[in-house]
Amino acid sequence: MVVLIAVIGILAGGLVNLLADDLPHYRRPRLPRYPDGTPRPVVAWLGITAFLAGKRAAPNGAKLSWRYPLAELATAFFMLLTYALKHDDPDVSDVQLVFWLVYMAIFVLITVVDIEHRLILFAVIIPSCALAILDAVVTPTRHDPNLQRALLGGALGFGTFFLLYLGGFVYTYVARQLQGRDITDVAFGYGDVMMATLSGLILGLEAVIFAMFITVFLGAVGALAYIVGSRMAGRGYALFTALPYGPYIVAGTVIMLLYAEQVRFFLAGY
Predict the structure, then answer these.
(1) 193 and 123 belong to one structural domain
(2) Which of 139, 239, 242, 256 would bridge with 96, disulfide CB 3.0–4.6 Å?
(3) Which residues contact 30 (CB under 8 A, 6 or more apart)?
(4) What are 64-89's pLDDT values in tens digits?
């Protein structure tokens, strides 16, 4: 089963790469291609096999980035981690486990697209929200949200991050005044609002509160690391630089999905 899930994870990672190439450009997904648009040979459809077979580059030299094998390995890793932690849990059915494995591939896709394009796509989020609602309907357990708790969690995630989204307009206005230049980057995008909604639908009302706390903490740590890293690299840091926030929401969601009991005990003592 471990080998099977690893193979499925790598194949799912290949699908993640395919979607990450086309969806941000509002194209219908195509067969895998090199960055210059040249179709890849079958042996290079996966990033891992492309690198191992020496097919990383197209005939004209356009190379696949390291994102391709890394996304495939990351998808397989998180699927295997989910299986290792949850397959013996008596409160997690086989159907529930399948939902969670699918979520891991979705989270990798969201993270890749947000890092590369600073976008969280409705084409990904809306079907994922529908999947989370279906999950709540068919697999309610003692630890996972039923439909009511899922909808309340989604509403809380949406409401909280929508207020942050509105605050982002104030943030951008202040940045424009302080820097005296036109700023087109949004401080907090509506895609982040929808990602928080998806998090609430997956986790339910109580768990999404912890997930939001983790998200804010990780976001602050990430921003600080970015500032320090930029200064150490001699690039400096522009005040009010917009950074992708989706990966932090994903991280908070994954942590609560897999380690909810440990987080509750650590943060709340129960």
Answers:
(1) yes
(2) 139
(3) 18, 22
(4) 999 999 999 999 999 999 999 988 88
What are the residues whose beta carbons fall under 8 Å from the beta carbon of 89, sequence distance 6 or more?
none
Q: Which residues contact 11 (CB under 8 A, 6 or more apart)?
A: 46
pLDDT of 93 reads 84
Dist. CA 97–CA 103, nearest whole Å: 10
E strand residue ranges, the chain: none
Residue 74 sits in the same domain as residue 119: no
Q: What is the mean pLDDT of the chain?
A: 87
Residues 217 and 251 grouped into a single domain = yes
In a domain, 106, yes or no: no
- The answer on pLDDT for 44 being more than 70 is yes
Q: What single string gives the DSSP state of each residue in 173-223?
A: HHHHHHHTS---S-SS-HHHHHHHHHHHHHH-HHHHHHHHHHHHHHHHHHH
Q: Are residues 199 and 256 in the same domain?
A: yes
134 and 15 together in one domain: no
Token couple for 242:
């917009």
pTM > 0.90: no
Bigger pLDDT: 16 or 93? Answer: 16
Range of the domain at 67: 1-88
Q: How much of the chain is helix, strand and coil, in % rounded to 5?
A: 70, 0, 25
Question: How far is Cα 188 from Cα 123, in angstroms, rounded to an integer?
Answer: 19
Task: Report yes or no on 263 lying in a domain.
Answer: yes
CA–CA distances in Å: residue 263 to residues 154, 217, 222: 20, 14, 20
